[in-house]
Amino acid sequence: MAEFDIESGSNPRIKRLVGLRERSARDRESRFLIEGTRDIDRAIAKYPYDPNRATRTLEEAGWRRTPAGAVANATGALLEVEMMSGAGQGKAATIIGDNWRVAGVTPILNILAPARERDREYRASFPGTQLNGRSVSLENFHFVSGQLPRPETGFVELNRGSFHDAEIERLHNIAMTSFDGEQRRTATVGFQQRMSQMAGYAPLYFSVEVILAKNKVKGPIGNYGPQIGTTWNVFEWEVTE
């Protein structure tokens, strides 16, 4: 009767098959750190690398190439954009600035010394762009009015660019507070889509973490926002046979 053992729930092959089916269902439903991750990727506006399109867009706005390669307006003023970054992001800022030059933009790099990095008021007063490192969690989405830097708090809030939009805030609030899973998913996709269309920020890359775990342990995902270490979500881990 050994052929019937495959029907047993205790059979390792059945356990593995069930586990794979469950993971496949989670993948289809996009149940990752942010609900609807794959839906977000399909919905957001994407801007492929296209120097020619960038040139046309600048020309439509009245900027023309000079013999030196930079663009200037009718009065001869160059299109200068400041980029602020910490010392640890200086290399990334330089690379981005070089890419801007290809499009004709003149980057003004402002790579902060450690003392300046600790000056919260100064960091909240940049006139152009700023490089930052952020978690992908909903709790760490700071582009809302409640995170606008204020003198009375010592400029501790993290929306340093002071970007905010009423519709984005409405959707983000639903994503953070609704008990309805479908409402949270729809709102999360919606505010990320609108954010990408308004170009409030431009994601650059994800940092990589290496996690060592035994083959039988499923679930470790590393640091997540304010959560430190690799065991904070241990209650979600699975140990397979």
Radius of gyration: 24 Å
What is the H/E order?
Answer: HHHEEEHEHHEHHEE
CATH superfamily of the domain at 44-130: Dipeptide-binding Protein, Domain 3
Tell me about the largest β-sheet.
Answer: 3 strands, parallel
Q: Beta-strand level of the residues, as a percent range? A: 5-15%
The second-level CATH architecture of the domain at 44-130 is: Roll
Fraction of residues in helices? 25-40%
Going by helix content, strand content and strand pairing, the class is: alpha/beta
Mind explaining what this structure looks like?
By secondary structure, the chain is an alpha/beta fold. Among the domains are: 44-130, Dipeptide-binding Protein, domain 3; 211-241, no CATH class. It contains eight helices and seven strands; from the N terminus they run αααβββαβααβααββ. A three-stranded parallel β-sheet has the order 4-3-5, with helices on one face. Helix 2 runs parallel beside helix 8 and helix 7 packs antiparallel against helix 8.
Strands, helices and their partners?
Elements: H1 12-28, H2 37-43, H3 51-60, E1 64-65, E2 71-72, E3 80-85, H4 90-103, E4 106-111, H5 114-117, H6 120-123, E5 129-130, H7 166-177, H8 181-198, E6 217-218, E7 238-239
Helix pairs in contact: 2-8, 7-8
Short summary:
The chain is of the alpha/beta class and 241 residues long. It contains eight helices and seven strands; from the N terminus they run αααβββαβααβααββ.
Throw out a few tags for this protein.
disordered N terminus, two-stranded antiparallel sheet, single chain, alpha/beta, Dipeptide-binding Protein, domain 3, globular
